[in-house]
Amino acid sequence: MTRVDHTYQVPDPLPAAEPGTLIAATDHGRDARLEGARRYTVLYHSTDARGADVAVSGTVLLPSGSPPRQGRPVVSWAHGTTGVADACAPSQSPNLGLDVFAEELRALLRAGYAVTASDYPGLGTPGPHTYLVGADEGNSVADIVTAAHQLLPGLAPVWFAVGHSQGGQAALFATHAARRTGAQRLGAVVAVAPASHLEAMLAGVKASHVPSELSFAFYSLVGLAATEPRGRATDLSSLLGPSAATTASRVIADCVTDSDPALRGVSTEQMLPLPGDRLRRMGERMGAYGDPDRSALTVPTLVVQGDADEDVPPAWTDEVVAHLRRLDSPGLIYRTYAGAGHSQVLGRSVCDVLAFLRSHGGARSVACTPPPSSRS
């Protein structure tokens, strides 16, 4: 697989193929940073929310050692926000985006899972990243499992979706894409601090007076623009004005950091100079394609939330779980972790996650110890 300026080269035109069809793969050998797993970068077919055939990039990890007789179960990892520029595609990073993600993947690999990790559409491949567009993400999380079975014959027929933040939302949407994987059965889903309440994001960031939160607002505008019919998307300058658009463009070109330098000293009101009714209408469209609690879940699901999370408010996840239960989602379990922040909850919950997967046909994992980061 080749890439130019962090964008993987995709056949143009893209030959038609079924979702999950492998386009290309590169074997990088054993990766000592990820428990010695054999690491592959892949391109595969998926479909977006409009049903269009799209190429998506991602990573496949195969643990070292002999597989069980029935094959290795697969966890399709759904990453949290890393940015929207192609350089932010987790497959291009040694730690697949963030160190806390790598810790989670190491735990899954030690437990005996093969791991697939989609970049999601437009992140690492041509075109804009459809940030928080649920169907796009959920489809890509499911379709990479099919691609992995083409790459690595002998994997077990059961798979699981596990995701954090943006990826928690993606994992919940993957429940609605499970039928796409054919003979591969979705055994259960884990959503850690899932993104939700998209209808409130833009207005909430504007009212927050917290400049660092603008990154998520700008990323959301990229995702919203990507859902527009071709040729009708509004450019940032027309939407935000020249000054705010310049700042937004700088942020969009960067990958996630604790505080983007371009946002130092700016005003959230000046960066989102849109009237309330315009923000409301845009939020309604975002919620329609991205809120993960608008349909009942049909597979066993564990939702995880830290009660000290400042990025995904615990009250929002409480409401998501309550709504999914009202919709009749059998097998939905909700666990909260006292004092755990947005990233810390990954390590705090990992042993419970492995136990949950094991109870639904997953790997018979060895003894689990939470990583050091979860105790900081």
Automatic annotation (TrEMBL):
Q: Per the database record, which ranges form the Serine aminopeptidase S33 domain? A: 101-342
One GO MF term on file is: hydrolase activity
What InterPro entries does this protein map onto? AB_hydrolase_fold, Hydrolase_4, Lipase_secreted
Q: Which SUPFAM superfamilies match?
A: alpha/beta-Hydrolases
Q: Under which name does UniProt file this protein?
A: Alpha/beta fold hydrolase
Q: Which UniProt keywords apply?
A: Hydrolase
List, alphabetically, the Pfam families matched: Hydrolase_4 (PF12146)
